[in-house]
Structure formats: C-alpha cells, structure tokens
Fold this protein.
Amino acid sequence: MIMLDEIYRLFNSKRVRQLADVRNIALYIFGIIVLAIAWSGARTVQNNYQLQKQISALQQQNAVLHLQNNNTYLQNQFYDTEVYQELSARQNLGLAAPGEQVLLIPKSVAMKYVDPALADNRDNNAVTPIDNRPGYTRNIEAWRDFLLGRKAATD
C-alpha cells in the first residue's frame, strides 16, 4: 500500500502534470518528428557521398579508357602508314626495297665480329639469366613472337 501511495503521489505531483500536459506532449511529438527528419537527412547525405565516390571512380575509369582508345587509334594510324609497312616487311619478312641487295651471312661468320659478352649464350649452353617479368607478360610476348615467326628457328 505504501508503494501505491508513492506512485500516486509521483504521478500527481506538479512536475509530472507539467510534463504530461497536452501542450508539452505536442512539443515532444514535434521534437521526435524533427529528429526523424534530421536522421533521414543525414542518411541521404551519406548515400549521396557514397554515390559521388562511385561516380568519380567511374569517371576516372572512363577517362582511362578514352585515353586507351585514343592510343589505339593513333597506333592504327601508324600501322596504316607506308613507313610502318616497309619496316615490318624488312624486319619480319626479310624483304628489301627495289635496288637493294640482301646479304645472307651465316651466323658463325657474323658471330666472329660480335663481342662475346653481348653474344647470345644459348648456343654455348651457358646459364640463361632469370626472367623476373610477370608470367602474363612473358606469355603475351611468346605468343607474339610465335605468331610473327621471330623465334621459330632459334627455339
């Protein structure tokens, strides 16, 4: 009974009646609505920040791809020139310009005039240097050389 009297006095006190007044309850509801709107605004700002970061990353990727496209376009233009075609024919096919003579020199004769430090050591059964390039780079170069016929005779 004493407990009930304490609770009754607590709820009937002047301070509790002021807090439970209808005008104050409306202020509480208004405060809760303001907090909900502020929380929603903060979440929106956070989402916009994340989206802006994604947009920035995609724009950078787009710029890189644009530069790669331009580079490829310029390479294609170079490959279409007569200068490149002539160099490619000389280098890969062993062709010569009209009026030029192609001299075929045996490797043994040519190697007499090459510094031994610069000579290819594969014929001497020497240890080949360690290739520290990534595997995919070696693979791409091996395929390129195979398709262009550069190392078919030496390997």
